[in-house]
From TrEMBL:
Belongs to the glutamate--cysteine ligase type 1 family. Type 1 subfamily. It comes from the Bacteria. Its EC number is 6.3.2.2. GO terms for molecular function: glutamate-cysteine ligase activity. Residues 9-381 form the Glutamate--cysteine ligase domain. It catalyses: L-cysteine + L-glutamate + ATP = gamma-L-glutamyl-L-cysteine + ADP + phosphate + H(+). Pathway: Sulfur metabolism; glutathione biosynthesis; glutathione from L-cysteine and L-glutamate: step 1/2. Gene3D superfamilies: 3.30.590.20. NCBIfam families: glu_cys_ligase. InterPro entries: Gln_synth/guanido_kin_cat_dom (IPR014746), Glu_cys_ligase (IPR007370), Glut_cys_ligase (IPR006334). This is Glutamate--cysteine ligase.
Length: 531
């Protein structure tokens, strides 16, 4: 009897269902630091000509005033989303005064912590809340860590496609609602992602080096490449290693991905459970707010994860409220490094592979994860980000020890029919060609982005800051050489102005005081989650 993946692919290959494959949605969120022409972190405010960081849906900031975030609309074809991302970059460059975008995940040589500016969103209650949240992050984790940049890839399947897949799922009771079935299938996708996401780190990790001052004197096991550069010789993604997002408080959060209610309970508990070191800080200093609360998490999004189940939220709604009320709508993949060899930070070829990979995770069988397997999944991921290109590196697949390259090739072989079906639906061979590129990387580690970055750094005097600045300038020149049309520019200018007007209106019409607003916000989730 055919396995579940084969059954599902056969079902979706049917002419009456195949078009559903093209109706899912894709979107990209791209983070990038603004730096001056010497590669120093920009100390200037978020450019007003880019609009309001609070209300512009496509151009905003992340942690720092200097950390831009570009957000594409959700599109059926990722190529359409990437074209919009390209336009956003080109518009942004018309408004940057003697600044460029740092096209790497690991930051430039940073100033003292006190000189890293926290993002500001105006004086409205919600804008102030976003700023206070970031103040809390600075107290909890330091500002340096928050300057790391990445690519977030948003992915969904069309809701009607889930209905088709349910036909092959004999384990589902008739009483299970459409919403709950879809949510559990996304959670199953996430389980598979945690099993196999090490593969993304090998294929697309592009941060084997870091500026020396990033460590701020912390102990580490990196090797010295030069006075200003540290590295791991076989590393793929220092961004996703324990050098990146570290948190003693979060170490005890163990969200379960075996069903949605348990995941919601885990995050709700973390948002409501006090953490003594944060209690010692308090929420205010000298009458000014410094964090939203003193719990393990200020808000759900503070939990650092390589993938999240998501639902578009309503105004004033919190993420777990949306998930509890309406279920999972899409997943957000958060582990992708910036591609320093592409001016957008991500290529269409990589995106085509992500689509194959995520469809595979959704269609493949996904058993419940045990605690032991969860530990194994984390160990495989961490081994890959630190030693992924080491010859003969062994990972653990259940009770089997297997070489990374061998297991990766086995997974690509398993994914090949998925790529073929996506190409059949879309026309062309882009998915198959991306698969061939990834197969070549598995056969030769020197073809990986992390190996290429290391070679380029070594060719630039063993200096990561020098190479990254030169590469970022080249990418800036490439983007600025392709100016937008007058009509495109006018559309962006109008969008920016509309966002500024929206922020002004919000600030002018709000009522009440901020303390009352925070109290209501903190109480809005914890007693009202139905799981």
């Amino acid at each position: 009897m055919a396995d579940l993946l084969t059954q599902r692919l056969k079902l979706l290959a049917d002419a009456q269902h195949r078009d559903l494959l093209g109706k899912g949605l894709r979107g990209v969120e791209r983070e990038t630091l603004r730096v001056d022409l010497q590669g120093h972190l920009a100390q200037t405010p978020h450019p007003a000509a880019l609009g309001s960081a609070l209300t512009n849906e496509q151009i905003t900031t992340d942690y720092s005033e200097s950390l831009l975030e570009f957000i594409t609309p959700a599109e059926n074809d990722i190529a359409t989303a990437l074209r919009r991302l390209d336009e956003i970059h080109r518009f942004a460059y018309t408004k940057l005064d003697k600044e460029i975008l740092w096209n790497f995940s690991m930051p430039c040589v940073l100033p003292d912590e006190t000189d890293i500016p926290i993002a500001w969103y105006g004086t409205s209650h919600i804008g102030t809340l976003k700023h206070v949240y970031r103040r809390g992050l600075a107290l909890r984790y330091g500002k340096t860590m928050q300057c790391i940049a990445g690519i977030h890839y948003n992915f969904s399947l069309h809701e009607d496609l889930w209905d088709v897949l349910r036909q092959t799922d004999g384990s589902v009771e008739a009483s299970v609602s459409r919403r709950d079935y879809q949510s559990e299938r996304y959670i199953a996708l996430i389980r598979n992602f945690r099993r196999y996401s090490w593969l993304l780190m090998y294929l697309f990790g592009a941060s084997p080096v870091v500026a020396s001052n990033f460590l701020r004197g912390r102990p580490h096991q990196l090797q010295t490449l030069s006075e200003d550069t540290l590295y791991l010789p076989y590393g793929t993604s220092l961004r996703m290693s324990d050098l990146g997002y570290q948190s003693n408080a979060q170490a005890n959060i163990t969200p379960h991905y075996n069903n949605l209610p348990s995941y919601i309970r885990s995050l709700s508990q973390a948002v409501s459970e006090p953490y003594p070191p944060y209690e010692a800080i308090g929420t205010k200093r000298d009458g000014e707010w410094v964090q939203i609360n003193t719990n393990i998490l200020q808000i759900e999004n503070e939990f650092y994860s390589a993938i999240r189940p998501k639902r578009v939220i309503y105004s004033g709604e919190r993420p777990v409220q949306a998930l509890s009320a309406r279920g999972v709508q899409y997943v957000e993949v958060r582990c992708m490094d910036i591609d320093p060899f592409n001016p957008l930070g991500i290529s269409l070829e990589a995106s085509r592979f992500l689509d194959v990979f995520l469809h595979f995770l959704a269609l493949e069988e996904s058993d419940i994860t045990t605690g032991e397997e969860g530990d194994q999944n984390r160990a495989n991921f961490m081994a890959t980000v630190k030693q992924g290109r080491q010859p003969g590196l062994q990972l653990h697949n259940g009770e089997r020890s297997v070489g990374l390259q061998q297991w990766g090739l086995e997974l690509l072989e398993r994914m090949a029919p998925v790529a073929a079906l996506l190409d059949q639906q879309a026309g062309g061979d882009e998915h198959a060609r991306s698969m061939a590129t990834q197969r070549a990387k598995l056969n030769d580690a020197d073809l990986t982005p992390s190996a290429r970055v290391l070679r380029e750094v070594q060719a630039n005097g063993n200096s990561f800051p020098a190479f990254a600045l030169r590469q970022s300038q080249l990418q800036a020149d490439e983007l600025m050489a392709r100016p937008l049309s007058a009509e495109q520019t006018a559309d962006f200018v109008a969008m920016a102005q509309a966002s500024l007007d929206a922020q002004t209106s919000m600030e002018r019409t709000q009522t009440g005081d901020f303390d009352t607003f925070v109290a209501a916000y903190r109480a809005s989730t914890l007693g009202n989650i139905s799981v």
